[in-house]
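Exam revision sheet. Question 4 asks you to relate a sequence to its structure. Input first:
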Amino acid sequence: MADRKPLVVLGIDLAGSPRRPTGVCLLRGLRAQTGVAFSDQDILNTVHQARPDLVPIDAPLSLPKGRRTISDRRGEHLRDCDRELLRRGIRFFPITLGPMRMLTERGLILKAKIRAMGYRAIECYPGAAQDVWGLPRQHRDREGLLAGLKKLGVRGLTHAATSDELDAATAALVGRWALSGRGEMLGGENGICIPSGRFLKKKQGDKRSRISRTGG
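Answer key, structure tokens:
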């Protein structure tokens, strides 16, 4: 029987401006390859070369109800997925605030182009995923985040990886969890994808059960 093709996920930690580095992480199975891109075309070329099963993007990819554009002030400030983050006590920047407007606009354009290429793009928030997994966020402890991703099984990451690349690796791992049925979408189909906390509780319970059975 032929070996199953490994899942291919391209995580993108999108910068609001093409003048700043966008972190990218190609995850084949659990082997990570990270780098940075700048222009939209650089990012789209990376997508084309990777031929991914999923593209999780760390950027807002939808608008609040009632808004036709990010500059439209007539609608709400928060989306359903944002309200769910608040309910769970996860910190985030509202997408209608300052620099988030530029990031949202760029994210929406890239999502449309990636989907036109035939690939699935979803919104991901690495900070939320790191909170669920119990990992430090990159601005607090980059080395701790690197170590935590390795403990979750990601191979190939090095100490040279930038904060942007580690957030991209987090996004890629969330995408892998989603493809294997261990993710959840906050706020519905067009919301934010995060790892499922239910899976973590089950895994921790299984571990305690194994220890008790072996007398540890």
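Marking note for examiners. The first helix runs from residue 40 to 50.
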